[in-house]
Amino acid sequence: MAGQAFLFALVLVGATCLSLVASYWGWTQRWRRARTIDTRQTFLARLRRAHVGIQNARDLMLADPKPRTWHQQSQRLLGVLPELAELAEDLRASPRLFREQAQLHAGLDEIIEYLKACGREYIAKHQNVLRGYEAEESFASVLEQEKMRWTADFLSGTDQYKQRYAQNIALVKQAMRSQIIFDHPDTRSRHVQ
Fold it and tell me: What is the value of pTM for the model shown?
C-alpha cells in the first residue's frame, strides 16, 4: 500500500511537472512568435517611412518644378539613404527574421544604389543649378542643359525608376507584409485551413 501511494504521488508530481513544462514551453513559443512579428512590423514600418519620404520628395518636385525645389528635395532624398542603408544592415544582422531574405537584401541593395545615383548627380550639379538658373526658366530646360539623367528618370517614373526603385520597393514590402500577415496569430488560422 505504501508503495502504491508513493507511486501515485510520484505520478502526480511528474504529471504536474510535465504540465508546467509544457505550459512554459507553449508560453515561450507564443512570446517568441509575437516578438518576431513585432520586429518584422518594425522593419516594414521603417521601410514604409523611407518610401513615403521618397515619394513625397518626388511629388513635390513634380508639383513645383524649380531648381530650388530640386535642391531641397534632393537633399531630402539623400537623408533617406542612410535610413535605408541602416535598415539593410539591420536585416543582415537578423538572418532568420524573414524567409528568403536574399530577395529582401537584393531589393534593398538595388534601391540604395539607385538613390546613390541621386547623390552623385546632386553633388555634381547642385552648384550650377542653383547659381545659374533663374526662377522663370523651366526646370525641364535645366534638366536638359545640365544633362541630369537621374532626375529626369526619377520625375518621369520610367526606365531606371521602374526597374530599380518601384519594382523593388513593391517586392520588398510585399515579402515583408506577407510574412507578417501569415504568421500573425489572428490570421494564421485562416491561411492554414
Answer: 0.77
